[in-house]
Design brief:
The complex is a heterodimer of chains A (111) and B (90). By secondary structure, chain A is α+β, with helices and mostly antiparallel strands. Helices cover 33% and strands 43% of the residues of chain A. Chain A is built from 3 helices and 4 strands. A 4-stranded antiparallel beta sheet of chain A has the order 2-3-1-4. In chain A, strand 2 and strand 3 form a beta hairpin. Chain A is globular, with a radius of gyration of 14 Å. The relative contact order of chain A is 0.30. The N and C termini of chain B lie far apart (62 Å). By secondary structure, chain B is mostly helical. Classes of the chains: A alpha+beta (111), B mainly alpha (90). Chains A and B meet through strand 2 and strand 4 of A and helix 4 of B.
């Protein structure tokens, strides 16, 4: 079992129930394939530095989980097929620090 | 004697360190790496404030001879900057 971080970028023009569905969908994928979710962060709407497929903004969802090769393959396969996602990225870590949140301040100001 | 002493004090560098006029001063190259040592900031693709310091105006990665980052940390920096570029953060 290893520690991983996974971030998704969803399209800008989605409604809130659709976003919650996406969040639930990937949580289920992790738990079904014998993984453990440690933390889920919502970074909210952020501006891109450059246009990605003619979009200027996107919703960021960030997962921190523990899992094996199975879970990684399932997540990658699903996020490539998914039409509502723009990009995704997984990073492997030896130790996860769950305390520091780099995007917390920007979310509080909007609320 | 007083005149001579004044002249000697005005010089910023110790003249004994230089062998000739054309030798470059050592002070320019004695800068330490800002990312290594104790209490150094964490290099991570989510830490955008730090990564933006090591990028030029046209989004190129700055060479280590300008920023004086050590070789080991420069390798980490490049990989983290590229990850942040994939996510569109930088």
């Amino acid at each position: 079992m290893n520690f991983y971080e996974h971030t998704l970028i969803a399209k800008q023009d989605l409604s809130t129930p659709e976003l919650n569905n996406i969040e639930k969908k990937y949580e289920d994928i992790i738990t079904k394939t014998e993984g453990k979710i440690i933390k889920v962060e919502k970074w909210g709407l952020l501006n891109f530095a450059k246009k990605i497929r003619s979009y200027n903004k996107g919703f960021y969802i960030h997962y921190k989980f523990e899992g094996e090769n199975k879970t990684l393959e399932e997540i990658k396969r699903n996020s490539i097929i998914d039409n509502s996602l723009l990009r995704h990225l997984t990073v492997k870590y030896k130790k996860l620090d769950t305390e520091t949140e780099y995007f917390k301040e920007s979310n509080e100001k909007k609320k | 004697m007083k005149r001579k002493n004044n002249k000697f004090n005005k010089r910023p560098q110790n003249p004994l360190n230089k062998l000739s006029l054309f030798q470059k001063s050592d002070s320019r190259f004695s800068k330490k790496c800002p990312l290594s040592g104790k209490e150094a900031p964490v290099i991570d693709y989510k830490n955008i404030k730090l990564l933006k310091r090591y990028i030029s105006d046209t989004d190129k990665i700055m060479p280590s001879r300008i920023t004086s980052v050590s070789q080991n940390k420069q390798r980490k920096l490049t990989s983290e900057i590229k990850k942040a570029k994939i996510l569109g953060l930088i």
